[in-house]
Specification:
The complex is a heterotrimer of chains A (146), B (176) and C (161). By secondary structure, chain A is an all-alpha fold. Chain A is built from five helices and no strands. The relative contact order of chain A is 0.09. In chain B, α1 packs antiparallel against α2, α2 runs antiparallel to α3 (50-74) and α6 crosses α7 (150-172). The chains are: A mainly alpha (146), B mainly alpha (176), C mainly alpha (161).
Chain lengths: 146, 176, 161
Amino acid sequence: MADVLFDRSVYVGVMVLLAIGLYGMLAKRNLAKKLVGMVIFQTAIYLFFIQGAAQMGATVPVIEQDLGVDADTYVNPLPHLLILTALVVGVGVLGVALSFLLRIYRRHGTFDEDRIAADLAAEEIEGHTVDDHDADDHDDAEEARS
Amino acid sequence: MIWPLELVIFAIMIPTALLALWLRDLLGSVAVLAAYSLFVALLFAGMAAPDVALVEVVIGAGVTGLLLVGAILLTARGDDASEGGTSRWVPGVLVAGFLALMLFGSVDLPDYADPEAPGHQRISPDYIEGSLDDTETPNVVTSVLADYRSFDTLGETLVIITAGLACLVILLREAR
Amino acid sequence: MAHGGAPERELPAERGLLVGAFPSEVVRVIASLLAPFVMLFGLYVTAHGHYGPGGGFGGGVLIAVGPVMLKVAYPGAAVARRLPGGLVLAVALLGFGAFVLIGLAPMLFGGAFLDYAAVPIGELAASRLRYLGILAVELVIGIAVAGTILAIFDAVTEGGS
């Protein structure tokens, strides 16, 4: 009975972490908090892959002369390298997300979703277009005049 | 692969993740997130993946935290977003459904650390047994990364360079 | 909120990495002492991927962390001006180009793309050639990753102000 509990507990832990990350991305109204939720979601996926590579009675996939080259002695190396590259790509994703966040902050002065939505609605009423490209051109014209 | 150790780390990690989302101070939230990444790296090391653990320590606990701290210091530190209304229980119900679906889906997965799992049977034994003869490289992860599956790595390198380019284009376009 | 939108706000001058006494004396001294050793360790990790944990991805990030530490500890100092995002990203692109060239080299000798063993160098055995090919690819990945991380950090912290 205890064995069954242990065998499945890693899955339960990973799924709970996935749910926490998803809740952060859905429910938090602060955009930076959404990013924190995204990072938690990402790490849960990495964990899911790495636990799939583990094998009972196997060791790190660096071949040791004394242990021989029997495949049962070493854990599965394939998920490791998939996650190795995914980790670095994760930093790229975070960087692009932060760049968007900084631009949103520069334009609206807040990370709060509701206030950004209100801001955008106010712009529409004033006759400004919400379209990013047009708004930029408008800015440029203003800068040139001043 | 020491069962109680992994359970203990999971028991620490889940409250840490919740704390990172719950804290109102964004800098504190990022600090807790870095600690969470450190526990993830410990778990990777415990699951016999030292390569991934090393990179997770450097990236998860280091670079991710630095990027978030840099962005937060440039903008607003406090999370003054309003809570409540429908935004609390609608995502809660959705996420509970998601969790139930995921747990239901995990029932048919092989047991944790089962040596007979299908994922271990096809191609990875060839990689492990051929690595020394083909490439003289004891670290199988490196030989698969840079030789057997180097085309995949080429694509991933292009992906991260594109991400860096996107950052510069997004931010520097208007900062002329 | 009173701000009506279209013209983008100037960020307050005291914002950014220079908040109050944020980079304290302790942080400055430790960062300047540690940065060269972190970069050296990154080089070691990059080149040591054959025998232990490491390789281009981990080592490249470590190499990038050295300048990033200095940029955090000394905002606006010479480090930031000498390593602008565009230049660093160009270096990363050069690394990627070298990766493609390494992949194309075996095709000159009738091999497949990225099949390092097809390049005849002296009397080396095929496994030795693959060993050297892995080393070259890891170094090139290290350059590309280090450049990209530096460019992203540069964009997020400097370009945002």
